[in-house]
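Standup notes
- DV: blocked on the single-chain target, sequence here:
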Amino acid sequence: MKLAESAPRAAGGALRVGFIPGVEPDVFARRWHTDPKRPELQLVPLDDRAPEEALACGAVDMVFARLPWNSAPRSAGPVLKREDIHAVPLWEERPVAVIAKDNPLSLSEELTESDLEGEHRFSLEECGGPQGAVATVAAGNGYAIMPMSLARLHARKDVTHRPLAEREGTRIVLAWPKSADDDVRQEFQGVVRGRTARSSRR
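- DV (later): unblocked, structure below
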């Protein structure tokens, strides 16, 4: 679906890049600013807003997103389908089980699905997000599964996390609408992938 909000950036305008919790884009910003000829870079934290919705409505030009992302829209706003976006894979996140420190499961270095049988699993959605899930688990109730980056972001003294041996991880991608592709977006994704001014474009 081609959206009017996803029109190309205005000439000379800042590049607005959204990022989700668990992603630290500062290193990419420093690389970007090594060339003074590049447009201004604005980093936009997306703490509560779904990255796909921020991208679809034009709040950001590009976004660091976590796949798989929520296929069910959270609002009645515009939606970008998977085939409508460029999504450059960057790195994979290992899933972990967050548990209370006094939970006997904390004695294991790694957990399997069978280890968690009999324990109640709290979804991030029902707890209002990863921070709420960590707080719920800290009270001594069950466990929650999330990427390791989020477990570290919301770490508390009364909880810990253990890697899950049998669960597929999530992947961080850099995404932007195909209908709004331009040289600036292409250059930014090259910088994120480690390309320098001397590198040839792939």
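- Follow-up: The CA atoms of residues 90 and 193 lie 7 Å apart.
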